[in-house]
């Protein structure tokens, strides 16, 4: 089982700049390179067709750890655009989701890429992705960039199971069997991704226990800095 801690400061080894200036730098100084409306591949440095390098936050955590709930707060308070990988996929791959399995990386990355390209926004929360090292590598290969930061909601499994089984939003994967499978996959395949970003100094590990308000007060300083 993974260790639960309270709020940990990020390990921003690569930069001492504030998050606000990183967000501004991510898209403020770019010029439009094309006026074409065609979908094009991002350039090697992660620049998207509109000539903008978006500010990307990956939001990770086990099933029911509160990713979607906290993303809604971040959107409300800091104007991000929320892209839930699970929601983007759910219409397409219902059977895979019903079994708690992971959809092929190229499918997910291309959906995310399309959603970013067709948005006017410059800063995105990508909720529930990457789920595996292979997801992560595929994103890097196709998008040509890493996320700016990564949030990880750390929550004990028994609490996650309780929340999922109480969710009652009609999700096909909110049942005892699928949640067991999702937790297994999360431990085996998703935690290595969390550890990768911790080593890179990009990870903000947030204690995902307590009330929604208490958790958001741990999130707020990350974006308000
Ligand atoms: N701090 C909290 N305390 C109690 N319940 C919570 C808390 N945060 C969220 N919930 C509830 O728990 C359920 C799961 O939360 P949420 O959908 O945000 O999790 P998630 O990480 O996005 O899960 P999934 O990976 O399954 O999409 C929801 O019903 C939500 O209202
Ligand atoms: O990158 C991803 C994200 C999600 N999935 C599938 O969707 C469900 C639900 O995702 P949530 O983020 O928990 O809403 C997940 O269990 C996977 O089956 C995926 O394959 N790849
Ligand atoms: Mg969710």
UniProtKB/TrEMBL annotation:
Keywords: ATP-binding, Cytoplasm, Kinase, Nucleotide-binding, Nucleus, Pyrimidine biosynthesis, Transferase. InterPro entries: Adenylat/UMP-CMP_kin (IPR000850), Adenylat_kinase_CS (IPR033690), P-loop_NTPase (IPR027417), UMP_CMP_kinase (IPR006266). Gene3D superfamilies: P-loop containing nucleotide triphosphate hydrolases (3.40.50.300). GO terms for biological process: 'de novo' pyrimidine nucleobase biosynthetic process; pyrimidine nucleotide biosynthetic process. It comes from the Eukaryota. CDD domains: ADK. Its EC number is 2.7.4.3. It catalyses: UMP + ATP = UDP + ADP. Pfam families: ADK. GO terms for molecular function: AMP kinase activity; ATP binding. Belongs to the adenylate kinase family. This is adenylate kinase. The gene is LOC113730166.
